[in-house]
Specification:
The chain is an all-alpha fold. It has 2 domains: about 55 residues, no CATH class; about 55 residues, no CATH class. The relative contact order is 0.19. It is extended and about 50 Å long. It contains 6 helices and no strands.
Length: about 130
């Protein structure tokens, strides 16, 4: 059974009414997460490009104008999301629900295996 499903069932069984529980795991920056996904999948990035925040945002806004993207839904919005520092904690779920997340790399490996199997099955059926 998946760790998040176990967490959801534990919240239903013993969580306090009206409480919110975050079912996550390890903290990881988006850039590190991307590299970990590629590594676990056994892939290498085709190309990488790192830009300072200002030039990245300026280029994203130019691309949005050229593509006529709606404000808040184009590349600039994505860059702004990636520039934010996001921190969430599952400590409350661990404490109240005895939630025990899988290590991130192991969860990613399960997900990648599932995606590959699903794609393979879809290709055979289609």
């Amino acid at each position: 059974m998946d760790d998040v499903v176990r967490g959801l069932l534990a919240a239903e069984r013993c969580g306090a009414v009206g409480e919110e529980y975050l079912l996550g795991g390890e903290e990881i920056a988006s850039w590190d997460f991307s590299r970990l996904v590629l590594s676990v999948a056994g892939l290498r990035p085709l190309a990488t490009l790192s830009l300072p925040a200002g030039p990245a945002l300026a280029m994203a806004r130019i691309a949005d104008r050229l593509r006529k993207s709606d404000t808040g839904s184009g590349y600039a919005a994505a860059v702004q999301v990636l520039l934010r520092e996001w921190r969430f904690s599952s400590d409350k779920a661990r404490r109240d629900l005895e939630y025990c997340p899988l290590p991130l790399a192991k969860g990613l490996a399960h997900t990648i295996d599932w995606l590959r199997a699903s794609d393979h099955e879809r290709l055979e059926v289609g």
